[in-house]
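[agent] plan:
  1. take the single chain provided in the ticket
  2. run structure prediction with default settings
  3. attach structure tokens to the ticket
  4. add a short note for the reviewer (M.T.)
[agent] executing step 1
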Amino acid sequence: MKMIFSSEWLKLRSISSTYHALGAAALMVVLGVAWTFYVGSLAEERGSLRAAAPEEGFLPLVQISLATIGVLAITSEHATGMIRASLTVVPKRGMLLLAKAAVVGVVTLVAAYSILLVTYVAARLIAGDRRLGFNSTDFSDDLPMLFASGVSVTVLALVGLGLGAATRSTAAAIVSVVAMLFVLPGIANYLPEPWNSRVASLMLPNLVPQIAGDRLSSRLGDGILPPWAAFAALLAYALVALSAGFYLLKRRDA
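[agent] step 2 finished; step 3 output follows
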């Protein structure tokens, strides 16, 4: 078992796309610093200003970038034919997918929290006493949002892995992740009431603020979920995607 995880870890760190995805996600720090300076200059001109915190505003960049790691963890093997060698060494396909999920989960979780925390600290140090309307003045108050954001990144990476196993296509899996983040939430808003708010509350972008109990989630109206239910719904995305990926991986020939 340990050898399987070591093998998957070696595969993940041996492909250049992993580092490209991590580099793209790390751009959040640069953009967060630039955003804080920009908001600070506007605040000096206008006297007061309410702005989105950079670790929230640029979260989709981290989500998409690290979801790519999950997708490529398996679609790259299908593209090169290496999946046949992997299944020869590990004939139990569920074990292979589990090992990939564990490695992708750990890498994306560590990367997500590192990037989020660096961005958070850098923005607050630059803002200083002005705060610039970034959430609260206490780290403990911001901790639920940071926690939920980091988990959402890992969940999306696992969703990407599951979709990659199901579709065998890098493009199809990435497009599906993008649709979950940006397309489906918009479509949900056009559903008749009260289904628009109920369905919207289950959309990926809306689960993070609900887990954190943030007031921004009040826009969902009566459809708002309690934190525990929103957290369960978020985990369900990964579970469903990985289950579908395992089912199709098991039924089809390599």
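[agent] step 4 note for reviewer: The longest helix spans residues 93-127.
[agent] ticket updated
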